[in-house]
Amino acid sequence: MHRDGWEGGRLLINLAAIAENYAQLCARVSPAECGAAVKANAYGLGLKEVGQTLYEAGCRTFFVAHLAEGAALRPLVGPDSRIFVLHGPPPGTASACLTHTLLPVLNSLQQVQDWQALARTQGRPLAAALQLDSGMCRFGLTEAEVNHLTTHPQELEGIEVTLVMSHLGCADTPEHPLNRQQLETFTRLKALLPAAPASLAASSGIFLGPDWHFDLVRPGAALYGIAPTAEQPNPMHATVRLQARVIQTRMVPAGASVGYGAAFTARQPTPVALLGIGYGDGFPRRLGQTGHVVWPDQPDIKLPIIGRISMDSLAVDLSPLMATGTALPPAGAVFDLIGPQVPLDTVARLADTIGYEILTDLGARYHRLHYDPRKG
Ligand SMILES: *Cc1c(COP(=O)(O)O)cnc(C)c1O
């Protein structure tokens, strides 16, 4: 173990930045309520720390994908919080929602029937959200199923619909015609059902404008610093910094190759640093020969990742540092792989994916440090 208490990769997670992002989104959507999506371990950043931070920041409505995620979140946030389970209960498990005080999102007539059956055995109405498919063809009741419910209202008896929701498929592309089409479909279908608070927008939908806000928004990505709108400046604060240490440096002679598959060949003598992070840590292998890192001592110099990324390490070309006459970083030096000069969205673009996948892939192997500059 290094004397600072970590080796390999380290993930710094700024909880104050998450709280600031939450406050920014609240202000943007007011008077609508701002909830938070904390599925997938709060997008890889830690359900416990992120859940508690958002609760302290005033968030009272949370969204998870699975029942088990909801059960894990329940003791972390106050009893005055609502936790919606986006996938609804799998067949035969509806009563687990009651055990853990979770609200299911009912996505199909089957889930509606299961929830109604549970309400009957409980002898009281049970609250739930109803999801409509407004054009993404993912989860939710189709138009035909909504029509069925309007002609068979008894199928909703015993279900207290506390939220009617739907999800947008193209919200990160504001000019996409599906955005307004889904808005219109949602508005029309929702009017067929008993009146209830409504929710359509996640992070990107918030930035489409107030028409999309309804009563409640459900951001995830934007809370964690991912740009909500493609090709636009990112208004959110970065929340993560990914660092790795230099294990050793070496001079690779001209004509020699570096790493598996001999994918990189040095044209001239090349100073190389080996960092202790690789795809086994969740760092994308796609970034071999493509990504770059930064040594914070020389923040303006991009250092290319050369060769293929190994399971536990990657190689970085230090030539741009040497060209400036800077002393080369010693073993133990800390490099940024995601940081102020290497934004998450840039890393995602270079890896041919989205910031969401980069965050959720960030492995449990990293030393994780949650910190809150507000609390010293
Ligand atoms: C994941 C998810 C969200 C949050 O989406 P972001 O794009 O991360 O803001 C909101 N609603 C539903 C239904 C989701 O699946």
Automatic annotation (TrEMBL):
<protein>
    <recommendedName>
        <fullName>Alanine racemase</fullName>
        <ecNumber>5.1.1.1</ecNumber>
    </recommendedName>
</protein>
<dbReference type="InterPro" id="IPR020622">
    <property type="entry name" value="Ala_racemase_pyridoxalP-BS"/>
</dbReference>
<feature type="active site" description="Proton acceptor; specific for D-alanine">
    <location>
        <position position="39"/>
    </location>
</feature>
<comment type="similarity">
    <text>Belongs to the alanine racemase family.</text>
</comment>
<comment type="function">
    <text>Catalyzes the interconversion of L-alanine and D-alanine. May also act on other amino acids.</text>
</comment>
<feature type="binding site">
    <location>
        <position position="311"/>
    </location>
    <ligand>
        <name>substrate</name>
    </ligand>
</feature>
<feature type="active site" description="Proton acceptor; specific for L-alanine">
    <location>
        <position position="260"/>
    </location>
</feature>
<dbReference type="InterPro" id="IPR029066">
    <property type="entry name" value="PLP-binding_barrel"/>
</dbReference>
<feature type="binding site">
    <location>
        <position position="138"/>
    </location>
    <ligand>
        <name>substrate</name>
    </ligand>
</feature>
<feature type="modified residue" description="N6-(pyridoxal phosphate)lysine">
    <location>
        <position position="39"/>
    </location>
</feature>
<dbReference type="InterPro" id="IPR011079">
    <property type="entry name" value="Ala_racemase_C"/>
</dbReference>
<dbReference type="InterPro" id="IPR001608">
    <property type="entry name" value="Ala_racemase_N"/>
</dbReference>
<keyword id="KW-0663">Pyridoxal phosphate</keyword>
<dbReference type="InterPro" id="IPR000821">
    <property type="entry name" value="Ala_racemase"/>
</dbReference>
<keyword id="KW-0413">Isomerase</keyword>
<dbReference type="GO" id="GO:0008784">
    <property type="term" value="F:alanine racemase activity"/>
</dbReference>
<dbReference type="GO" id="GO:0005829">
    <property type="term" value="C:cytosol"/>
</dbReference>
<dbReference type="Pfam" id="PF01168">
    <property type="entry name" value="Ala_racemase_N"/>
</dbReference>
<dbReference type="GO" id="GO:0030170">
    <property type="term" value="F:pyridoxal phosphate binding"/>
</dbReference>
<dbReference type="GO" id="GO:0030632">
    <property type="term" value="P:D-alanine biosynthetic process"/>
</dbReference>
<comment type="pathway">
    <text>Amino-acid biosynthesis; D-alanine biosynthesis; D-alanine from L-alanine: step 1/1.</text>
</comment>
<feature type="domain" description="Alanine racemase C-terminal">
    <location>
        <begin position="239"/>
        <end position="371"/>
    </location>
</feature>
<dbReference type="Pfam" id="PF00842">
    <property type="entry name" value="Ala_racemase_C"/>
</dbReference>
<dbReference type="InterPro" id="IPR009006">
    <property type="entry name" value="Ala_racemase/Decarboxylase_C"/>
</dbReference>
